[in-house]
Specification:
Elements (H helix, E strand, L loop, with lengths): L1 E4 L14 H9 L3 E5 L10 H6 L3 E3 L2 H7 L2 E3 L6 H4 L7 E4 L7 H10 L2 E4 L14 H18 L21 E5 L3 H12 L3 E6 L2 H11 L3 E5 L2 H10 L2 E4 L14 H6 L5 E4 L20 E4 L2 E4 L9 H22 L2 H5 L1 H4 L2 E4 L2 E2 L2 H7 L6 H4 L2 H5 L1
Parallel strand pairs: 1-2, 1-4, 2-3, 4-5, 5-6, 7-8, 7-10, 8-9, 10-11, 11-13
Antiparallel strand pairs: 6-14, 12-13, 14-15
Helix pairs in contact: 6-7
Length: about 375
């Protein structure tokens, strides 16, 4: 199989779909790997390192999309990339289709099979291909929040951990999953007062055991969200419903009543955001202010630490990439967890939560992949 690794073209996106080490694994299984010229050069993975791993360096994305059977990326395909996809081709990347009907429409028109990292499931539960970037984004959310609390950045001038004799900043984290846990580790480590809100009592018990009183866990209700958000200096939105749009937990009215110079970091922005006032931003222009509250809503936060992120992502995606390269779409019939990642196939939306979010018809993946069952 020809596996194509194009250069990412989203604003300030320096990650790449596969490290040279990952390429070597694919080549050792008898596959050809085509990597776009200088695709990873910005993060220290130059052409020579890919060629040493057995890759073929090509000059343009057009060559890759025209020839590859399997396209491995990081971010969702941009419109011109969607238009280069073709029937029978497999795309393996983050998609985040729920808030993006334009991309969903282009993918269905392409006839390609699009597998989303964020909906592939794990044998032990969870979302193993989302987890590494969630870990990165959770940790980065505190870095970003602490920076934008500085007065010169428009914040209220609070040092996250305070100093002896001065109260530290109050950090509120909405969601106790991977993002929320990593954010809490960073914030607590810096000495902030940290509260996590979640609706799972078992998860709150796990967090209590993990943090041993350094982080306060609170059951999430509308009253609890309002109480803690209005008192916060930094709020991290870390809520996820796999495949679906994020719930809007913080309203415009909450934002208007928050402290001046407080900071909102919406890690859920890829799924539409969990603050009503959120809109996607970029690393080039990461923030905006509403009612004197700073909003940081960068849609590819892990791209800011692209080398670490690329290595962590390849570690997670490589086993699935090898399955797809070895077996093609047949791998989805054998592996229900990989099949759960199929969002679009041959013009159909195949993930129920994605279809519901888009208001589109849903054709179950197992039916879409089986022509005989589909025609029955």
């Amino acid at each position: 199989m020809i596996v194509g690794i194009p250069k990412e073209i989203k604003n300030h996106e320096y990650r790449i779909g596969m490290t040279p080490g990952g390429v070597r694994e694919l080549v050792s299984r008898g596959h050809q790997v085509w990597v776009e010229n200088n695709g990873g050069a910005a993060i220290g993975f130059d052409n020579d390192s890919y060629e040493a791993a057995g890759a073929h360096i090509v000059a343009s994305p057009e060559e890759i999309f025209a020839s590859a059977d399997l396209i491995i990326k990081v971010k969702e395909p941009q419109p011109n990339e969607c238009r280069m996809l073709r029937p029978g081709q497999i795309l393996f990347t983050y998609l985040h289709l729920a808030p993006d009907p334009r991309q969903a429409g282009l993918l269905t028109v392409s006839g390609a099979s699009a597998i989303a990292y964020e909906t592939v499931t794990g044998s032990r539960g969870g979302l193993p291909l989302l987890a590494p970037m969630s870990e990165v984004a959770g940790r980065m959310s505190i870095q970003a929040g602490a920076h934008h609390l500085e007065k010169a950045q428009g914040g209220n001038g609070m040092l996250l951990g305070g100093v002896p004799g001065v109260e530290p900043a109050r950090v509120v984290i909405l969601g106790g999953g991977v993002v929320g846990t990593q954010a809490a580790k960073m914030a607590a480590g810096l000495g902030a007062q940290v509260t996590i809100l979640d609706r799972s009592i078992p998860r709150l018990q796990q967090l209590d055991d993990l943090f041993q009183g350094r982080v306060v866990g609170v059951y999430s209700t509308q009253d609890a969200v309002e109480q803690h958000v209005l008192a916060a200096d930094l709020v991290v939105g870390a809520v996820l419903i796999p495949g679906a749009s994020a719930p809007k937990l913080v309203t415009r009215e909450h934002v208007a009543a928050m402290k001046g110079g407080a900071v909102l970091v919406d890690v859920a922005i890829d799924q539409g955001g969990c603050f009503e006032t959120s809109r996607a931003t970029t690393h080039e222009d990461p923030t905006y202010s509403i009612d004197d509250v700073i909003h940081y809503c960068v849609a590819n936060m892990p791209g800011g630490v692209a080398r670490t992120s690329t290595m962590a992502l390849t570690n997670a995606t490589l086993p699935f990439a090898l399955q797809l390269a070895d077996e093609g779409l047949a791998a989805l019939s054998k592996d229900e967890h990989l099949r759960n990642g199929l969002n679009v196939h041959a013009g159909n939306i195949t993930h129920e939560a994605v279809a519901a979010a888009l208001g589109a018809d849903h054709l179950p993946a197992e039916v879409a992949l089986n022509p005989l069952q589909r025609s029955a």
